[in-house]
Design goal:
Elements lengths: L32 H4 L23 E6 L4 H13 L4 E5 L2 H5 L22 H7 L9 E5 L4 H14 L9 E3 L4 H7 L6 H18 L3 E2 L1 E4 L1 H5 L4 H21 L4 H5 L2 E7 L3 H22 L12 E5 L11 H15 L4 E3 L12 H17 L13 H24 L2 H6 L2 H18 L27 H16 L2 H16 L5 H9 L4 H12 L6
Parallel strand pairs: 1-2, 1-9, 2-3, 3-4, 4-5, 6-7, 7-8, 8-9
Helix pairs in contact: 2-4, 5-19, 9-11, 9-14, 11-12, 11-14, 12-13, 18-19, 18-20
Length: 531
């Protein structure tokens, strides 16, 4: 020790959990193996939700994509499928997320910029042209307007002769995290929760292979939370959705089958692996003991992960290749069911095709060359990893208990508790970077004066005019009487208590636009303007 003194610094995880010099069997002296770790495919699912995990098949490789108009994004989807992607994930532009048509003044300058513009079922049909919907699962990152986009998807599938029961995929439909971290909400929390539970009820009855909610911790982490907060706040949102659905008369085991999760894969390798394992174990306990679910499938936390966008740097952007590979490995070692790997250029703009290809190749190399698929939970039993898994579970449980004491997640959001906790964590992280307590290679250490040119993808501004022209053509060619009747029926249903998915489906099949449907719902529900 005298010859090799430790550096004068604190050793801790990215979330501030202290790391001891050494871990031994004494750290796990109180562990009951079957209760705390167990076997994959068995309660409490610490080691994974499937008995064979990746020995039967690897995770679904699902790249997030969408820009411009539907034709452009359809071409990108086909390109990604040709590169070996096994699932599609749709990014929508801000007007679509916020319920505005492309020709609305509120949409000016934003059409097709951060995702694809979808105004009507015509656009959805174009987006999915040539995609075998009965064989490819689709994930749609959409929240406030999730019920409308789901209805469009079902309507397009019907036109292709595909029954709803054959459709597999996910709508994010996680409105609570929008109030916490992301901000693309439209309606007040009460009506928003109604739309969520109506979608769950509809999927339970008609789309058995569809995940009606993907409870998202990803955006909570991107907003600056710690790994512990990501687990706690995500699972607290999940509890709120399950309890709301049960209160609406749905069976807890039917609801659980429609639920999946979406987590961030960050750079602290061991903390991230422990985070995923802790989240699985904690959710299994919550569903079994708190929510009274009896079906073992209800206890399984199935999750998609995306590598951390906020960790990518514009400085020395090629370094992002290494960050993404490390984060993807953490997700694989943590037992992910599907994965998106960010492209190296995403700190600068939308991914180019070359960057997107390299991102999917990163997953393929991990799956086929690293050996990570050979055995299940290969780090299970590590003194350090198991101790860290326990610690994250304990601290996340403490947060959930605080939220329960406030009256639940909706109340905790309303009083600003969750937002404040994330803001404080983000501030601490930023200070640590500025003071070089946290090293970010290429940003506050190992910097260079050289500038490296990275090609940046740009959306053609003419696409916005094209989208408006298509919208004008639709309005002149459709049966306006049928549209108005469908919107009147939606207005009536919104003022009552009936499930809103059937009248929304009727409206989209009449070629009502997303803006027209949201105008009706805004008139009935009002708008939420935050605090």
């Amino acid at each position: 020790m005298a010859r090799t003194p430790e550096r004068r610094q604190q050793f801790h995880t990215a979330s501030g959990i202290e790391s001891k010099r050494l871990y031994t069997p004494l750290d796990l002296a109180q562990h009951n193996y079957l209760e705390r770790i167990g076997f994959p495919g068995c309660y409490p699912y610490t080691r994974g939700v499937r008995p064979t995990m990746y020995r039967s098949r690897p995770w679904t490789m699902r790249q997030y994509a969408g820009y411009g108009v539907a034709e452009e994004t359809n071409r990108r989807f086909r390109f990604l499928l040709e590169q070996g992607e096994t699932g599609l994930s749709v990014a929508f532009d801000l007007p679509t997320q916020l319920g505005y048509d492309a020709d609305d003044p509120m949409a000016a300058g934003e059409v097709g910029k951060v995702g694809v513009a979808i105004d009507s079922m015509v656009d959805m049909d174009t987006l999915l042209q040539g995609i075998p919907l009965d064989r490819v699962s689709i994930s749609m990152t959409i929240n406030a307007t999730a019920a409308i986009l789901l209805a469009m998807y079902v309507a397009v599938a019907r036109r292709q002769g595909i029954a709803p029961g054959q459709l597999a995929g996910t709508i994010q439909n996680d409105i609570l995290k929008e109030y916490i971290a992301r901000g693309t909400y439209i309606f007040p929390p009460g009506p928003s929760m109604r739309l969520v539970t109506d979608a769950v009820a509809y999927c339970t009855a008609h789309l058995p292979r569809w995940n009606a909610i993907s409870v998202s911790g990803y955006h909570i982490r991107e907003a600056g939370s710690t790994a512990v907060q990501e687990v706690a706040f995500t699972l607290a949102d999940g509890i709120a959705y399950v309890e709301a659905a049960v209160a609406a008369g749905l069976d807890v085991d039917r609801v659980a089958s429609q639920l999946s999760f979406f987590f961030n894969a960050h750079s602290d390798l061991f903390e991230e692996i422990a985070k995923f394992r802790a989240a699985r174990r904690l959710w299994a306990t919550i569903m079994r003991r708190r929510c009274g679910a009896r079906d073992p499938r209800s206890w399984m936390l199935r999750f998609h992960a995306q590598t951390s966008g906020v960790s990518l740097t514009a400085q020395q952007a090629e370094n992002n290749l290494v960050r993404v590979a490390l984060q993807a490995m953490a997700a694989a070692l943590g037992g992910v069911q599907s994965l998106h790997t960010d492209s190296r250029d995403e700190a600068l703009g939308l991914p180019t095709e070359d960057a997107a290809r390299l991102a999917i190749r990163t997953q393929q190399i991990i799956a086929h060359e690293s050996g990570v698929v050979n055995t299940i939970d290969p780090l299970g039993g590590s003194y350090y990893l198991e101790t860290l898994t326990d610690r994250i579970e304990q601290e996340a449980t403490a947060y959930i208990e605080r939220i329960d004491a406030m009256g639940g997640m909706l109340r905790a959001i309303e009083v600003g508790f969750v937002q404040h906790e994330i803001q404080e964590a983000a501030y601490r992280e930023q200070r640590a970077t500025e003071e070089r307590q946290r090293i970010v290679v290429g940003v506050n250490a190992c910097t260079t004066a050289e500038s490296v040119h990275i090609p940046v993808f740009a959306v053609d501004p003419r696409l916005e005019m094209d989208q408006r022209a298509k919208l004008d053509q639709l309005r002149r060619s459709r049966d306006q009487g049928r549209v108005e009747l469908a919107l009147d029926l939606l207005d009536e249903a919104a003022r009552g208590s009936a499930n809103l998915l059937p009248p929304i489906l009727e409206a989209v099949e009449a070629y009502a636009t997303i803006g027209e449907i949201c105008t009706v719902l805004r008139r009935v529900f009002g708008e939420h303007h935050g605090s």
